[in-house]
């Protein structure tokens, strides 16, 4: 079993449905659940899955004085960029080209590794082997995309490129197998050609089908239905009663088309019209016979192994290919997968959902990693570090000396919680933890010192001078140790005493939590041990109080006017301390 | 701890604050540049001998002194036990040549990892047993989890968390996670006179 490093997760207040993370307001009606305040937070409740975050993931709104989590902030996209070539993509391109990189950035369809453009090595002709200028032109076409991780190359699906650049545009014109695909414009031009018309007329007689790809079929269908709407065939009005609901009615058709083509086709006149329209009849109108003959695919399945079929993940990674011939029966085999253009990534700014203030905003440029605004919770609320505490002097008490070791059931263990104050004011911390952890296996929890004060994080110079004044620092450290009468190596001097702080530093305080892990022995009738049910998790309510400057905001309770007025602030939240696994 | 320490000191501490283990294998030291305050643990190998053999056309044309740096490492980097830094090599104009490996500041390389990247940015955490393929580019604030295999020529943009074989993006570094990449405190905890981890 994997060792568990102790963790602290903090619950974002946005998951409290009655308050929805608003600052508590005395005038507002109380929550519908009267026992809301008395209820102990259960870290194992299914709802908690979505509200617990490590401190690093949390932001803080300075106006609402509230923690904000990734789930409750409103995100706004600042920049789109390709994760491979790191070029910024303007949002106007995004509308026309889609959310993928249109340069030559591709991922391997088999293993998602990056693909590189390489020239296809043409096997030298034996007769030309003696030719001296064999290596004169090492970089000449054709080119292929190759994966340096799994050695897949696009020649496996029969795709080769004439030029080493503009791969995305070239690939759009290529079908698997190397056959070129006509763009809609080319198709239209071909139709005007009299020679082609004559051939097409002959083909209709012989019932030969022209293969339409998705893009052309859609374009043909759209054109056909637009014509139908413009000139409704008044002759066939057989089902006028049902006509308004059926697929062939002009009203429902114009509604559907406005859905798929962006509303430009909404025809006011069509509403008054009643009557059915005919459906597409030939490929020029977008008619495509379904090929229901799957014998080729079945034969291939029989001939190949499971490894040759595409996995669900591989199919999901495939971009929609509008050059595909048919929607049905596509890409079931790994040999049919196409290179994946890189999905674009974004830089996003984040807003507070309540006051709409920006709480995180990165620089717009792709290459810079700076932030214009970055209000992280870690610089407002104390961090909590957990460390197992081994006490040799205590006869009964013992803890896992090695971090990550299993907790012995029914044997008291001690943990050191270190609270570090990030703000420039001294804070008063009040902890509340249930005496028994919620859940099927209730462990006993005792917070030895639930009420303490942490000094301010004022002495910025201390940290800066640490590097240069190595000796001074050592002296200071010794002094501090002497004062507190404890040394890391002889912790035995410290007595576990209720209501007493274990250790104290410049802006941190350590306290001891005693736990008696529950026995995981299953009583008859109980279900089996669920996943991670052996992890000892303590819900703890943290209340932080401090006196801050009354910033010029109206949110605070202190009335404005006096600049020197000190405002009492408090912040309270649930957090979960994951201490370790209990031995089964 | 103090009893196990060899009398001469396990590390050589340079004027610029580098702490290089005596048991580290540095090949071609004249081609390795350390920015200072970098920790090199025992059994680390840096292949400074794999120096560029073909100079870029612009430099050879001007007749400037050839740049012989094979590996350059910034400040506050931490190379854990048993890792290997190796400049990447490839065919260039028909001949094989190595290219320099550049590493920024505050880069942690986990134990038993092999790095053959073209460049690694600043504030990068590379876990244990990671293989970074040739000419990979890792930007700033990237976390590469244990056991990852980064394919050659892969680009990992800033604020990515990657894992898997081959590496794939599994998450983004949150806004509050930037400080975790700082290696100043870790730097103090090793050396001939290690300091305890500050709280």
TrEMBL record, chain A:
<keyword id="KW-1017">Isopeptide bond</keyword>
<keyword id="KW-0597">Phosphoprotein</keyword>
<keyword id="KW-0007">Acetylation</keyword>
<keyword id="KW-0175">Coiled coil</keyword>
<keyword id="KW-0832">Ubl conjugation</keyword>
<comment type="subunit">
    <text>Subunit of dynactin, a multiprotein complex part of a tripartite complex with dynein and a adapter, such as BICDL1, BICD2 or HOOK3. The dynactin complex is built around ACTR1A/ACTB filament and consists of an actin-related filament composed of a shoulder domain, a pointed end and a barbed end. Its length is defined by its flexible shoulder domain. The soulder is composed of 2 DCTN1 subunits, 4 DCTN2 and 2 DCTN3. The 4 DCNT2 (via N-terminus) bind the ACTR1A filament and act as molecular rulers to determine the length. The pointed end is important for binding dynein-dynactin cargo adapters.</text>
</comment>
<feature type="compositionally biased region" description="Basic and acidic residues">
    <location>
        <begin position="467"/>
        <end position="486"/>
    </location>
</feature>
<dbReference type="Pfam" id="PF05502">
    <property type="entry name" value="Dynactin_p62"/>
</dbReference>
<keyword id="KW-0963">Cytoplasm</keyword>
<protein>
    <recommendedName>
        <fullName>Dynactin subunit 4</fullName>
    </recommendedName>
</protein>
<comment type="similarity">
    <text>Belongs to the dynactin subunit 4 family.</text>
</comment>
<keyword id="KW-0206">Cytoskeleton</keyword>
<dbReference type="GO" id="GO:0001725">
    <property type="term" value="C:stress fiber"/>
</dbReference>
<feature type="region of interest" description="Disordered">
    <location>
        <begin position="467"/>
        <end position="495"/>
    </location>
</feature>
<feature type="region of interest" description="Disordered">
    <location>
        <begin position="13"/>
        <end position="47"/>
    </location>
</feature>
<dbReference type="GO" id="GO:0005869">
    <property type="term" value="C:dynactin complex"/>
</dbReference>
<dbReference type="InterPro" id="IPR008603">
    <property type="entry name" value="DCTN4"/>
</dbReference>
TrEMBL record, chain B:
<protein>
    <recommendedName>
        <fullName>Dynactin subunit 5</fullName>
    </recommendedName>
</protein>
<dbReference type="InterPro" id="IPR011004">
    <property type="entry name" value="Trimer_LpxA-like_sf"/>
</dbReference>
<dbReference type="GO" id="GO:0005869">
    <property type="term" value="C:dynactin complex"/>
</dbReference>
<comment type="similarity">
    <text>Belongs to the dynactin subunits 5/6 family. Dynactin subunit 5 subfamily.</text>
</comment>
<keyword id="KW-0963">Cytoplasm</keyword>
<dbReference type="Pfam" id="PF21711">
    <property type="entry name" value="DCTN5"/>
</dbReference>
<dbReference type="InterPro" id="IPR047125">
    <property type="entry name" value="DCTN5"/>
</dbReference>
<keyword id="KW-0206">Cytoskeleton</keyword>
């Amino acid at each position: 079993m994997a060792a568990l490093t102790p963790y602290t997760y903090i619950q974002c207040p946005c998951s409290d449905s009655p308050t929805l993370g608003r600052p508590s307001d005395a005038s507002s009606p109380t929550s519908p659940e009267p026992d809301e305040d008395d209820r102990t937070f259960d870290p194992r409740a299914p709802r908690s899955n979505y509200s617990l975050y490590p401190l690093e993931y949390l932001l803080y709104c300075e106006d609402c004085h509230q923690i904000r989590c990734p789930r409750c902030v409103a995100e706004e996209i600042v920049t789109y960029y390709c994760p491979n070539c790191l070029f910024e993509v303007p949002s106007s391109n995004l509308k026309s080209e889609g959310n993928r990189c249109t340069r030559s950035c591709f991922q391997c369809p088999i293993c998602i590794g990056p693909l590189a453009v390489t020239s296809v090595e043409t096997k030298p002709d034996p007769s030309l082997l003696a030719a001296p200028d064999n290596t004169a032109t090492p970089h000449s076409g054709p080119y292929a995309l190759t994966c340096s991780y799994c050695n897949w190359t696009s020649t496996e699906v029969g795709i080769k490129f004439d030029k080493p650049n503009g791969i995305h545009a070239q690939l759009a014109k290529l079908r698997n197998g190397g056959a070129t695909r006509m763009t809609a414009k080319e198709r239209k031009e071909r139709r005007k050609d009299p020679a082609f018309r004559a051939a097409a007329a002959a083909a209709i007689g012989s019932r030969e089908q022209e293969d339409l790809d998705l893009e052309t079929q859609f374009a043909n269908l759209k054109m056909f239905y637009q014509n139908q709407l413009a000139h409704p065939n008044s002759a066939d009005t057989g089902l006028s009663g049902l006509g308004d609901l059926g697929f062939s009615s002009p009203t429902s058709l114009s509604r559907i088309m406005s859905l798929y083509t962006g509303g430009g086709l909404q025809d006011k006149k069509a509403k008054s019209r009643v009557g059915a329209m005919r459906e597409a009849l030939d490929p020029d109108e977008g008619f495509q016979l379904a090929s229901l003959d799957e014998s080729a695919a079945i034969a291939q399945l029989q001939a190949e192994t499971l490894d040759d079929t595409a996995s669900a993940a591989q199919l999901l990674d495939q971009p929609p290919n509008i050059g595909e011939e048919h929607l049905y029966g596509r890409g079931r085999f790994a040999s049919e997968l196409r290179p994946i253009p890189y999905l674009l990534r974004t830089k996003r700014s984040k807003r507070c959902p309540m006051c709409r203030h920006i709480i995180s905003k990165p620089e717009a440029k792709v290459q810079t990693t700076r932030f214009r605004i970055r209000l992280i919770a870690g610089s407002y609320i104390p961090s909590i570090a957990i460390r197992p505490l081994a006490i040799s002097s205590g006869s009964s008490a013992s803890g896992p000396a090695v971090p990550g070791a299993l907790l012995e059931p029914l044997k008291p263990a001690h943990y050191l919680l270190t609270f570090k104050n990030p703000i420039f004011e001294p804070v008063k911390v009040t902890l509340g933890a249930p005496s028994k952890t919620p859940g099927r296996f209730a462990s006993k929890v005792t917070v030895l010192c639930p009420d303490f004060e942490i000094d301010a994080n004022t002495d910025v110079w201390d940290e800066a001078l640490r590097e240069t004044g190595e000796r001074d620092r050592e002296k200071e450290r010794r002094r501090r140790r002497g004062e507190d009468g404890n040394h890391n190596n002889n912790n035995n001097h410290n007595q576990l005493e209720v209501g007493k702080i274990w250790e104290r530093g410049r802006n941190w305080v350590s306290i001891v939590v005693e736990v008696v892990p529950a026995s995981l022995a299953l009583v008859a009738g109980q279900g089996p041990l669920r996943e991670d049910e052996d992890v000892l998790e303590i819900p703890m309510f943290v209340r932080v109080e401090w006196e801050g400057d009354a910033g010029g905001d109206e949110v605070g309770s202190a009335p404005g006017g006096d600049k020197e007025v000190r405002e009492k602030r408090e912040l309270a939240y649930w957090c979960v301390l994951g201490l370790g696994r209990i031995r089964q | 701890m103090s009893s196990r320490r060899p009398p001469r000191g396990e590390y050589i501490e340079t004027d610029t604050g580098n702490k290089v283990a005596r048991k580290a294998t540095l090949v071609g030291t004249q081609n390795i540049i350390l920015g200072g305050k970098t920790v090199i643990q025992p059994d680390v190998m840096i292949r400074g001998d794999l120096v560029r053999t073909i100079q870029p056309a612009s430099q050879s044309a001007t007749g400037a002194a050839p740049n012989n740096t094979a590996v350059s490492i910034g400040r506050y980097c931490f190379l854990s036990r048993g890792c290997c830094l190796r400049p990447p090599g490839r065919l260039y104009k028909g001949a094989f040549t190595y290219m320099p490996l550049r590493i920024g500041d505050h880069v942690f390389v986990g134990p038993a990892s092999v790095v053959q990247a073209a460049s690694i940015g600043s504030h990068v955490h590379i876990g244990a047993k990671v293989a970074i393929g040739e000419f990979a580019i890792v930007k700033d604030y990237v976390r590469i989890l244990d056991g990852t295999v980064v394919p050659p020529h892969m680009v990992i943009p800033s604020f990515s968390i990657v894992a898997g074989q081959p590496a794939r993006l599994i998450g983004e570094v949150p806004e509050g996670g930037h400080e975790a990449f700082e290696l100043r405190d870790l730097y103090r905890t090793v050396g001939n006179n290690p300091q305890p981890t500050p709280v």
